[in-house]
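Two records follow; treat each independently.
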Amino acid sequence: MKNTTIRIAFIVAIFSVLSGCASQVKPAQDSGYLTGSEILQENRERFPFQKVWVNQETDKDYQSYKKIYVAPVNTSYLDNMEWFKMLSEDGMTAIHNEADRLAVYLQNRLIYELENSQGADFTVIKTKKNIDSDTAILEFALVELIPSPAQVNRFTSVAGFFIPFLGTASSLVVEDGSIAIEAKMTNYTGEESLLLFADREEDKSAILVDVNDLGYFKHAEKHIETWAYQYALLLSTDMEVQIKDQGFKLKPW
């Protein structure tokens, strides 16, 4: 019983550190994905993201929509990362493959959180042809993706496991792994923005790395799960409710 208590206290302490670090992470540079991104500002009283903008003048605000079309996630802006440009061709291919996998994971996770929200009943529109005037469009872009050094160090000790980009960019893979997103929610035509937000998270959880997992970006999946959960909360809670930047989401899939 004593050992169990110690383990629980240890886990709580680790996640407390993660939550405390979340607000200290520097925002990513604007990628150009969001037009007029200079209007985004921090609003921690309501939003868990580093930068956000809400359309206050629309007849139908972002919370009024219960039908959501979740578009495929854009990964093209990752090509603008400075360290990415230094990779070998194999390295670029490896990162693109991981980014495509994470893009699908993010889209599916958003759909899952909306369909399983306990705060409101949402209908996820699966195809563009079913979008109507009662539908809002949600679009995400991955704008930064850097592998965790804790994982890179671990993987290099695995016999026969080759990391394509390590030889050409090892000097750049020294900071905390990170992932950043920019997102916009618009009306059904895509012409009126309802909600814009951007966020960046770092991985400081070396002690939580699963030694059986050989993915480059396991930390990114955790942040994706949290973003999807937070987005569903924003759509299903009163504007007075603060959605905190809680670090990793503990709720299972």
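The next record belongs to a different protein.
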Amino acid sequence: MPVNPRLKDPLNDQLFAGVLLLETAEECYQFFEDICTIGELKAMAQRLEVARMLKHGHTYDDIVERTGASTATISRVKRCLYYGADGYKTILARLDGEEKR
């Protein structure tokens, strides 16, 4: 899927190039602690878990109970998971070992 032209710009290119240079989970923790608030980081982690749970067929009630995500957040993640740019699908497949790089 092509990159959304509204997102493509030199600042995002620099950010993503920097993320791709991270080599360990510890480096990721250090970088993301500096670049994000704790709330932003927790929200991103929550969305990824929501996507994982949706992929594995969990109900909204299960997801709310486990993650604390609102039903609005779950709906948004579900929409992105099924109709988005396939970012969630790529990451989830790799985390599940279904896709090789």
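Discussion point: The mean pLDDT is 95. How would you locate this feature using only the token line?
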